[in-house]
UniProtKB/TrEMBL annotation:
Keywords: ATP-binding, Kinase, Membrane, Nucleotide-binding, Phosphoprotein, Transferase, Transmembrane, Transmembrane helix, Two-component regulatory system. This is histidine kinase. Coiled coil: none annotated. SUPFAM superfamilies: ATPase domain of HSP90 chaperone/DNA topoisomerase II/histidine kinase, Homodimeric domain of signal transducing histidine kinase. It comes from Cupriavidus malaysiensis. Its EC number is 2.7.13.3. It is an enzyme of class 2 (transferase). Residues 216-433 form the Histidine kinase domain.
Length: 444
């Protein structure tokens, strides 16, 4: 009786451990909060391929060895591929490690194109393995084109090399089957390319549609927001007339009205950003302006919460001229300020430092906050449209808008960050006098 109970208890414990292990493999919800949708989808693809490899290689070794025996099988290679795929099951947990991507490329290359092409050659181009190679190609091209092409070419080359080093000659390669397979492979890859292009077109259409929708919504919101702002201004003006100066409620109500005004101004700035993003920056009027003045005006108009204005320090912005649009540049600074303050709020610490300087042939604006910083995988995607960090924090169009605007002026923006320490944006404008000299030289 005790032994039976122990076996049941042991079985229940192993079942619980197994369930918890698989739950850990697929539980990406917490980590998804730190990633954009594209990164989450890529990690899930890696996990699913890992699961296919861990299950598929042992399963098909048994099928091709005992159910439908093939000419050649290799248990050692199957076990190696299975072992390589196991870490891919935990891709979401390992996403913070820089070695995950190269390891995934290596493991998938060995487990799919290398193994499948090698078995294809050893089985003299058998139909089952010809179809398996096609399936491997389809799986590969669900990843990026560069990833799939590198994996396919390197895996195939390695498989041919190992096949020949194993004592086979060039004449042992099933050339008729290979030549018959090549046009089919080329057609499959071409179809996969067309599907990828179609997906990209759909993404671009989605971006244009969202921009148009945002512009429409922004236009409709302007009128009620203006009305609310006027109402708040009226309340602030009348409160001192209605309540005596000694009334303790007067400063509280005035502070509340001021907070409402600041919130309305913040929403208005966000709407202006949406409207500007929906338009072509190239169509905006360009003229010489002083970036230092634009920075001071953007910060002065920013709807800071009480006490937050003192966190911003503007340094060394002496009078200088750059070519662009002052109003759009103020929106760039407003967006960077908003993001930095949100990071400071999350971290519970930090300051914002803005400085301007002439460096060589460019004028630089450095915008730095000492709050949360961002991890390397986020840094690579900072300027992608609709990317936000943390995920779903905003629309994800702010930094993409900043980059597009600056590029339209011949300027650039880059980001450097150390997680938990700082995030620094560096904006570079070409010096107008050097640009004019270059244009004169080109005309001559």
């Amino acid at each position: 009786m005790n032994k039976t109970h122990q076996r049941k208890h042991s079985g229940g414990a192993w079942t619980g451990r197994f369930a918890r292990a698989w739950q850990a493999v697929f539980d990406t919800a917490a980590r998804a909060a730190l990633l954009d949708e594209e990164s989450v989808a890529r990690l899930r693809r890696i996990q699913l391929v890992g699961m296919l490899g861990v299950v598929g290689h042992p399963l098909y070794y048994w099928i091709w060895s005992h159910v439908f025996p093939q000419r050649y099988e290799n248990l050692g290679l199957r076990l190696l591929c299975t072992a390589l795929f196991i870490p891919l099951l935990f891709a979401s947990r390992l996403s913070r490690h820089g070695w995950l991507s190269p390891y995934a490329l290596f493991a998938i290359t060995v487990g799919l194109p290398f193994a499948f092409v090698f078995f294809y050659l050893e089985n003299a181009g058998a139909l089952a393995w010809a179809e398996s190679v096609l399936i491997a190609v389809v799986i590969l091209y669900h990843f990026s084109t560069a990833f799939a092409t590198i994996s396919l070419l390197s895996g195939t080359a390695a498989a041919v090399a190992v096949f020949l080093l194993g004592g086979n000659s060039m004449a042992s390669i099933p050339w008729d089957a290979v030549l018959l397979q090549l046009p089919i492979l080329a057609f499959v890859i071409a179809v996969l390319f067309v599907i990828k292009i179609d997906r990209q077109v759909l993404v671009e259409q989605k971006q244009r549609g969202m921009a148009a929708a945002l512009a429409t919504v922004a236009h409709e919101l302007r009128t009620p927001l203006t009305s609310l702002a006027m109402t708040v201004d009226g309340i602030r003006a009348r409160l001192p007339r209605v309540l005596p100066a000694t009334d303790p409620q007067l400063p509280v109500l005035l502070e509340a009205a001021e907070r409402m005004r600041a919130d309305l101004a913040h929403v208005h700035n966000s709407i202006e950003l949406l409207v500007a993003n929906s338009k072509d920056p190239l169509a905006a009027t360009k003229a010489l302006f002083d970036p230092g003045t634009a920075i001071h005006e953007a910060i002065a108009r920013f709807p800071f919460e009480p006490g937050h204005a003192r966190l911003v320090r503007i340094e060394g912005c002496e009078p200088m001229q750059v070519l662009g649009n002052a109003q759009l540049f103020e929106l760039v600074i407003t967006n960077l300020t908003k993001n930095a303050l949100e990071a400071i709020r999350r971290a519970g610490k930090g300051e914002i430092h803005v400085r301007c300087a002439i460096t060589g042939d460019s004028i630089e604006v450095v915008f730095r906050d000492t709050a949360t910083g961002v991890p390397p995988h986020v840094l690579k995607q900072m300027f992608q449209p609709f990317f936000s960090y943390p995920a779903h924090r905003g629309t994800g169009i702010g930094l993409a808008f900043c980059r597009n605007v600056l590029r339209s002026w011949g300027a650039s923006i880059s980001c450097d960050s150390v997680e938990h320490e700082y995030t620094e944006f560096r904006i570079r404008f070409p010096r107008p006098e050097l640009r004019a000299e270059l244009l004169v030289g080109l005309h001559h």
